[in-house]
Amino acid sequence: MIIRSKKASDVPSSEITSEDVYVNRRKFIRNAAAGAAALAFAPQALKAFDGTPGQVVPARFKGMKSELGEDLNSYEDVTTYNNFYEFGTGKDDPAKNSAPFRPRPWTVTIEGHVNKPGEYQLEDFLAPHTIEDRVYRMRCVEAWSMVVPWRGFPLADLVRRVEPTGSAKYLEMTTIVRPAEMVGQRGRVLDWPYIEGLRLDEAMNPLALLATGVYGMDLPNQNGAPLRLITPWKYGFKGVKSIVKIRFVEEMPLNTWQVQNSREYGFFANVNPEVDHPRWTQARERRLGEFRRRETLMFNGYTDEVQSMYAGMDLRRWI
Ligand code: MTE
After folding, report:
1. Tens-digit pLDDT profile for residues 254-309
2. Closest Cα to atom 21 of ligand 1
3. Where are the beta strands (DSSP E) in 183-275?
4. Quick check: is 151 in a domain?
5. For ligand 1, atom 24: residue with the closest CA
């Protein structure tokens, strides 16, 4: 994300809930070969990778590809080149500045048009759901991209569980505000808290993931610990991090980037190579770690899974 103004997880492993308990290793969706390989490896201890000598990302990810045959970006790429303005606007700021952040214990408040509002502990969310690893292409509005093995559970599972009523048309999702631990929130570079929205049918799409981990380990702080959104057919800014509130609302919510600059950012933010950002083309992208630029794919390559949700909509208007 670019705006004009400029400017690790170290939870003791004893406090980290092992998600491996919940992982259904048979469900490596979108990568059958990788799923088969995963069965062959013993479960790895789960904790955020912190660079301790000898600590390695789980071996089952070696050689894993996306469903289009793309290599995964390295754990280092994924965790050192981040947008998380709560920790600073530089790409390396979140990795450098997020160590003081405490992602556990964690409560998520569910509000609005649902039969089961309330305060849910992170563990309440994790326990009943099947945690899966999913390799997703991520495309940032700034025209760089990565391929990332996220770990998480379908947002649709959570939505069903809290039982939206007929008035719930959209979800508004909010990031935590904790300036004492988030150095970027001590300034006004964005209007805190960071907010994102999805239409209810988008939230129910099987691709929409609430991620709790990456590379088979808990999310590091800089990637949005302990819970963040992933919608791989949309530009990366939809991936609201460190979510503390989900409100089910009737009206389309405004997201943080629309508030910041409504000419440049819309509600839907679907990856669309045919519609340029006002200041640069969206037709190409640079995969982190590569020099040549690639052609950007409509809906980031997930057209079959998502296009029916936008039938009849003018995607030049609804950016
Ligand atoms: N969420 C919050 N709370 N704050 C942010 O600054 N940046 C967004 C999104 N979620 C952001 C956020 C943007 S612009 C991108 S591209 C993705 O997070 C980046 O996610 P990553 O760092 O895991 O790649």
Report:
1. 999 999 999 999 999 999 999 999 999 999 999 999 999 999 999 999 999 999 99
2. 82
3. 195-199, 209-214, 217-218, 228-230, 243-249
4. yes
5. 82
- The Å distance, Cα 36 to ligand 1 centre, comes to 31
Report the chain's terminal Cα–Cα distance, integer Å: 16
Q: Is residue 256 helix, strand or coil?
A: helix
Smallest Cα–Cα separation from 198: which of 174, 225, 221? 174
pTM for this one?
0.86
Task: Specify if 315 maps to a domain.
Answer: no
Please report whether residue 236 resides in a domain: yes
Assess if residue 23 is contained within a domain: yes
- 164 in Cβ contact with 310 (< 8 Å): no
For the record, the structure tokens of 272 come out as 């669309």
How far apart are alpha carbons 171 and 253 in whole angstroms? 8
- Kindly state if the Cβ of 86 falls inside 6 Å of ligand 1: yes
Q: Could you tell me the residue range of the domain that residue 73 belongs to?
A: 13-310
Nearest CA to ligand 1 atom 8: 237
